[in-house]
Write a structure and sequence with these properties.
The protein has 331 residues and is α/β, with parallel strands linked by helices. The protein has eleven helices and 15 strands. A seven-stranded parallel beta sheet has the order 3-2-1-4-5-7-12, with helices on both faces. Strands 6-15-10-13 form a four-stranded mixed beta sheet. A two-stranded parallel sheet has the order 8-11.
């Protein structure tokens, strides 16, 4: 009997990968996770098969692809901290770009049909208008964004030269946690605003810094397109369905098409937590755009993506619930 095909999820023990695993499991997919657990958590994988290891380990990846009859790879595994990428660029080019090249080579050798790639809005750099569509020129301003863009180029060229097809999803600001409270954003030394603000609300941080209050925005603080992690996970599952149904390779932004300012996010956290945060105003950080919002029609039209959690209070509430659980049950 021919073994049923499966999905290889790299980085599936991490924040976005683990939320995608929940949805893959809910639809009965056969899944194997490859994660070196450098930033991920075994608990987040739950019932899926977990293989500890690095994406750049060719022998290990070759074996997994063959053993599990993998027809689709969903590739999350990457380093993602922008300031760290500036300080240690070769770490990012090694793990994000070189390891992805190794994975792509193994996937091509094994005859993998579909590839879903976790990319980033950082490939756009600082768009002049603050609104980025898939046609906006790519001009990353840090090694993290460049490492992801280079991976996109490799994927594009490989699929042009073979029968493999791909979807690259460019994320904007991911936030929130599982609405059922099963898993959440557990990243240590987090830098993303919603998580940092919720950590301050539960006492993990003594204060919250706001970097830049003089931007040309309605309240002077930066505006970002925040997307709930469950909606983002759904986009990956939709991409899988799209490719298996014969869809053509494409790149799609993942965002809601509107933004919230730093002050609006803080106000939501304070409202839901029922307290005032100690907020300290700091100078702008180099490279932070005043606004970055997704033009995200393609993900809806091509993939049929229908977000359900497009509300900052919902994003904050699920994040805060998870931080309170981590206080009781540390991971």
């Amino acid at each position: 009997m021919t073994q049923r095909s499966s999905v290889l999820v790299t980085g599936g023990a991490g924040y976005i990968g683990s939320h995608t695993l929940l949805q893959l499991a809910a639809r009965g997919e056969r899944v194997v996770v490859l994660d070196d657990l450098s930033t991920g958590f075994k608990q987040a994988v739950r019932d899926a098969t977990l293989v500890p290891g690095n994406v750049g380990d060719r022998k290990l990846v070759d074996g997994l692809l063959a053993e599990h009859n993998v027809d689709t790879v969903i590739h999350f595994a990457a380093h993602t901290i922008v300031p760290e990428s500036v300080a240690d660029p070769l770490k990012y080019y090694g793990n994000n770009t070189c390891a992805t090249r190794s994975l792509l080579e193994a996937a091509a050798r094994a005859g993998v049909k579909n590839f879903v790639f976790s990319s980033t809005a950082a490939v756009y750099g600082i768009p002049a208008s603050g609104l980025a569509s898939e046609d906006t020129a790519t001009a990353p301003i840090n090694p993290y964004g460049t490492s992801k863009l280079m991976s996109e180029w490799m994927l594009r060229d490989l699929c042009a030269a073979s029968s493999m097809r791909y979807v690259a999803l460019r994320y904007f600001n991911v936030a929130g946690s599982d609405t059922q409270g099963r898993i959440g954003q557990s990243t240590r030394k987090a830098t993303l605003l919603v998580k940092v603000a919720c950590e301050a609300a539960v006492g993990k941080r003594p204060f919250l810094s706001v970097y830049g209050t003089d931007y040309p925005t309605p309240d002077g603080t930066g505006v970002r397109d925040y997307i709930h992690v469950e909606d983002l996970a759904t986009a990956h599952v939709d991409a899988l369905t799209y490719l298996r149904d014969g869809g053509k390779s494409l790149i799609a932004n993942c965002g809601y098409g509107h933004g919230y300012s730093v002050r609006e996010v803080i106000a939501s956290v304070e409202k839901i937590a029922g307290l005032k945060l100690d907020v300290r105003e700091e100078p702008r950080r180099a490279g932070d755009p005043p606004a970055l919002v997704a033009s995200a029609k393609k993900v809806r039209e091509a993939l049929g993506w229908k977000p359900k959690l497009d509300d900052i209070d919902t994003i904050v509430r699920t994040s805060l619930d998870w931080e309170r659980r981590l206080q009781r049950e540390p991971w």
